[in-house]
Amino acid sequence: VLFLCGFQIAIPNNVKLKCISWNKDQGFIACGGEDGLLKVLKLETQTDDAKLRGLAAPSNLSMNQTLEGHSGSVQVVTWNEQYQKLTTSDQNGLIIVWMLYKGSWYEEMINNRNKSVVRSMSWNADGQKICIVYEDGAVIVGSVDGKEGPSCHMFFFFVSASTVLPLDVDTFFLISPSGLFWVIALLLVEKSVTFDCATMYPSLCTMFSWFCSSHSASVHGGSPSSHGIPPVLYSFQHNLIPSPHLRTLKVPGKQMSALSWEGGGLKIGLAVDSFIYFANIRPDYKWGYCSNTVVYAYTRPDRPEYCVVFWDTKNNEKYVKYVKSLISITTCGDFCILATKADENHPQFVLVLCNSIGTPLDPKYIDIVPLFVAMTKTHVIAASKEAFYTWQYRVAKKLTALEINQVARSRKEGRERIYHVDDTPSGAVDGVLDYSKAAQATGDPICAITASDKTLIVGRESGAIQRYSLPNVGLIQKYGLQCRAYQLSLNCNSSRLAIIDISGVLTFFDLDARVTDSSGQQSIGELLKLERKDVWDMKWARDNPDLFAMMEKTRMYVFRNLDPEEPIQTSGYICNFEDLEIKSVLLDEILKNPEHPNKDYIINFEIRSLRDSRALIEKVGIDDASQFIEDNPHPRLWRLLAEAALQKLDLQTAEQAFVRCKDYQGIKFVKRLGNLQSESMKQCEVAAYFGRFEEAERMYLDMDRRDLAIGLRLKLGDWFRVLQLLKTGSGDADDSLLEQAHNAIGDYFADRQKWLNAVQYYVQGRNQERLAECYYMLEDYEGLENLANSLPENNKLLPEIAQMFVRVGMCEQAVAAFLKCNQPKAAVDTCVHLNQWNKAVELAKNHSMKEIGSLLARYASHLLEKNKTLDAIELYRKANYFFDAAKLMFKIADEEAKKRTKPLRVKKLYVLSALLIEQYHEQMKNAQRGKVKGKSSEATSALAGLLEEEVLSSANRFTDNAWRGAEAYHFFILAQRQLYEGYVDTALKTALHLRDYEDIIPAVEIYSLLALCGCASRAFGTCSKAFIKLESLESLSTEQKQQYEDLALEIFTKHTPKDNRKSELDSILEGGEGKLPTCVATGSPIMEYQFWMCNVCKHCVLAQEISNYNFCPLCHSSVG
């Protein structure tokens, strides 16, 4: 914060002022003085010039009314902003309330306690209550309607003045002249909070005023005998603990009697003798400027964090970040540093490197308080009062491929250093990151720092200046000044240092000058003679070490070689000074509405040499202007001269000027102009060079050079105009250029995701690739399919279209596209990816792909994972993988047999399994025949036979005994059917066959059926053997065995366990005639020489029985 003396208003007849109060909302100023003087003034700023907004705007008195009603000296005035009332009191204790009516102030209410004099009054925030403090110690609270509220006595008030200020609706703040402060709550008057300001700042406290943000206040004080006492501004936090002294303002005059803040907090009114002085306040905002972006911070009432806005002034876009405990904002180039506190309960601090849109790139945690921060293109320097920390930051675009690994290894060692301000580093040996050094106290603390690419400057409170080299930090020189620096700044070549001290005095120091003192000793460094007061901002030119701009009060001065130009009225903060132009920003105006910054608040100023050069060129001529620029050379001026010479087609002067400003493109352009013969053609080219494209096009068309007009628009990328020119021409348009224009316009719409519009132009431009993309984005798959069908075979776009179909799950269309471009493998992979396995197998077979085996295995495993075993069997069967299908079918049959529920279904499953094995055998035979026909070698045939035998032996059950399962359940069902039909002897014969199938049907079921059949046919010997087998089964429980024993006992107590007749089957077996074939229709052995044999399952049926069947009883194949 900096105080700047502004203007003054004199009171007529030299009447001394006693009090002053500034209405925060409407801007009225009330002042009271001796002899009943009471005036209401109002300042208004009336200007239409954007550059003169804010403090720089001229102020006029729009109201100057004298109010009559007091006879004694008016000592207290206070405003009620909510109800537009003015309350005043004089030395006789008379209180008058004034109201505004039709633009004038009138008396509304009078009150006189007749006991004591009023020392201070204040309304609360909502204007409902007023607190009045009397000299005798009485404190009265009243309401806006005139009623008296609570009161109390505070006997420690002295006779001299006291002050009362509102804190909130129900709380007031009281100050005694001894420096004691109280906080009084209206609801609990007897309780108060007190702290002593006089102990820290021992003086007579005569007045006190809050700053508009309620975070700081101004206190006027001094010894009772002093005159011309300066007001001192202190900063108070929410807990009312005073912080360090910020600024001092010395005011002319004998005695100051009152002060009051303006509502915006940028002005303060001072009542001194018979004058009202107005001082401007220049706040030290948290802000910066980088890469066309203004970065500023402000607080919002609804959030505890700082709201940091990155406002891109070029595109008028803003990016908002919320940062806790923000300390400062520092910028350089394209980046900025946000200095913050890591955590309220943690002593660390953070330096956050951000780009111009607020994206954090690299945070650094440090253990010192970053009170002062400076930044260059390669380094960040943060300083506390005792030490400074350097960080050589790097961003991704600055790193080469070789450096990336090196940086990763030396990140800690090579980039961060810390130095104590009392140390004298040589720069030969790198410092270390030892924060214990930083904690050591110093007798001469740091007060300011600045840095350039090769120099670091550290200012100390004693006036000492220490100069260090960068990047290797070594102490080069120490200088001595007679002031305490507040802001330091180096010029672009680090030869001169600008110093703004705490009083706002700007001085300059030449760091490299060698001077000889009075004793004849030579020293380095010289304080230059230039000195300016009331300076609050300055900026060196980035391209000229002798140019700088500074803000003095509400004026901007530009200096060249320490000689000033005429001032410019403005109150903007300087952002950048380059190319003889100054960019400034009206932060005061922006922060009135920080959420909606206006581009009108960015102001560009041209310095005098640029303005003069332009005026000379326009009014005098190029020759005289050339001589002036020769005397005041700058690349911007030479470029201005070159452009003016081009306008007049003075090519020689233009070329010389472009050479002086090192503009190679300009030189080439002048050379090209020199090769043109036509003057009108030259004028067209110059118009295009200066961006007057409409004029250049019109001139080309007037010359009947439509081709050049089209070429101009081609260079500009204005394809809409190119298309228009091509269509409006009299001759035939170039087909290739038309296609190019249509495609470019299509690209324009596609880039903006207007796919439907893009399609129209891509169709005309025959751009099939982008057309496919648009159809895909529009989800127009029919159009995409038609496009694929229209393409020739093996077109390079077909695979891309196929992939688009794959991504949306359209298998058929994708396969068609892949096959059209001769990529069957991709088509099969697509079917697999989309779980279209049938299609995949079909494609693999049609294209004789070697991978069909692995593909089938993958598909089968996929089906088995989903418990679709029958689908897997069908897959293998269709693919002629009969053996694999049979294995799965046998597995299903075995699982179904374990359920013991439906034996007919189990038989069918075993029959299907056996049929698959038969097909497998047939397949193997055909394969062997093919090998013989192919005249394969004997060794190859032998090897094939060995491999086949190995496979067959590993799956013996499936190959040699494929029909055993079917036979077992066939006889099991047949025996039961015969038994229930009454053919008990035949049923017994059939049941006896089941003894060979205990590995398929559980023995308990076989022998239970056999016992049942034996008992029914009265073959009790066979029945007895069956019961003996049942009682010996280990799979039965003891209870089940006991049941069988009981049943056997019941049967065989009545019947002898002997067969009445021997079984024919047993007789045959005992006769040793060998195994006979069994009739699958009756279950009886076939002893005849003529019988029927099935062609499929190779099982036999008696000749007389087969006539009763159309299908084989076992495998159900046709009897033919």
Question: How would you describe this structure to a colleague?
Answer:
This is WD repeat-containing protein 35. As a component of the IFT complex A (IFT-A), a complex required for retrograde ciliary transport and entry into cilia of G protein-coupled receptors (GPCRs), it is involved in ciliogenesis and ciliary protein trafficking. It comes from Monodelphis domestica (Gray short-tailed opossum). It is found in: Cytoplasm, Cytoskeleton, Microtubule organizing center, Centrosome; Cytoplasm, Cytoskeleton, Cilium basal body. Residues 287-606 form the IFT121 second beta-propeller domain. With 1120 residues, the protein is α+β, with helices and mostly antiparallel strands. The termini are far apart. Helix 12 (706-716) runs antiparallel to helix 13 (719-728), helix 20 (824-833) packs antiparallel against helix 21 (837-846) and helix 21 (837-846) runs antiparallel to helix 22. The chain contains 34 helices and 54 strands. Residues 153-162, 176-205, 221-242, 399-404, 407-414, 935-939 and 1068-1074 have low confidence and may be disordered. It is elongated. A hairpin with a 6-residue loop joins strand 53 and strand 54 (1100-1102). Strands 45, 46, 47, 48 and 49 form a five-stranded antiparallel β-sheet that branches. Among the domains are: 15-199 and 208-215 and 260-270, Methylamine Dehydrogenase, Chain H (7 Propeller), CATH 2.130.10; 608-675; 964-1075, Alpha Horseshoe (Serine Threonine Protein Phosphatase 5, Tetratricopeptide repeat); 1076-1120.
